[in-house]
Amino acid sequence: MQSLELRCELRDPETAMAALMRVGATPLITLDLRDTYFRVPSGVFKRREAPDEPVEYIFYDRKDRLGPHLCQFTIYDEAQMRLRFGRTDPPTWRVVCKTRVALMRGNVRIHLDEVDGLGQFCELEALVSPAHNVARCYETLGELRRVLGPTLGEPLTGTYADMLDALEPERALR
């Protein structure tokens, strides 16, 4: 699957939530997530765990850049992951814990994240499909950036694991 993604610092979660509700975003769920990032030769591979939710394995590849960027991703359940990647997990790199408020507006998944050790962030993920081509996804993310306005800080690049690694390289699991 493919998405167009943008992650920014989140300066004011309450105002962001109010702005999103005004434009018809639908709250979906609040989750406490634990993402275990694995060391892999290319791309990003992680195990996502949440209470009362099935474990997911997510592999994605993207060119990190400031601003919106395309991402190719695949979500596996445990059995699919074992068939694809083998019986044992790759070496663990880093564990990231966060609380996520998930919303949806049209084809865009909106995540308001509070990440342990890092702070608050907003992720916008526009799912690319025949009904929502890449150009339309760029337009939609632009609209949401305008709606969120000053509640957003700087756009960011990399994963939360990369950000933690930059702050505390000695805590990366070897």
Structural class: alpha+beta
Instruction: Tell me the series of helices and strands, N- to C-terminal.
Output: EHEEEEHEEEHEH
Give the total of domains: 1
Number of strands: 9
Give the full name of the CATH homologous superfamily: Hypothetical Protein Pfu-838710-001
Tell me the span between the first and last alpha carbons. 31 Å
The residue fraction in helices comes out at 10-25%
In CATH, the topology is named Hypothetical Protein Pfu-838710-001
| Strand fraction | 35-45%
Query: What gyration radius follows from the Cα positions, in whole Å?
Result: 16 Å
Main beta sheet: strand number and arrangement?
8 strands, antiparallel, barrel
CATH A-level architecture:
Beta Barrel
Q: Count of DSSP helices?
A: 4
Q: Shape from CA axes?
A: globular
What's the structural blueprint in terms of helices and strands?
Layout: E1 2-10, H1 13-22, E2 26-38, E3 44-49, E4 56-62, E5 69-76, H2 78-85, E6 92-105, E7 108-115, E8 119-127, H3 134-148, E9 152-155, H4 160-167
Task: List the keywords.
4 helices; 8-stranded antiparallel barrel; 9 strands; Hypothetical Protein Pfu-838710-001; 174 residues; alpha+beta
Short description:
The chain has 174 residues and is an alpha+beta fold.
Explain the overall architecture.
The protein is α+β, with helices and mostly antiparallel strands. It has a single domain (2-167), classed as Hypothetical Protein Pfu-838710-001 (Beta Barrel), CATH 2.40.320.10. It has four helices and nine strands, in the order E-H-E-E-E-E-H-E-E-E-H-E-H. Strand 3 and strand 4 form a beta hairpin.
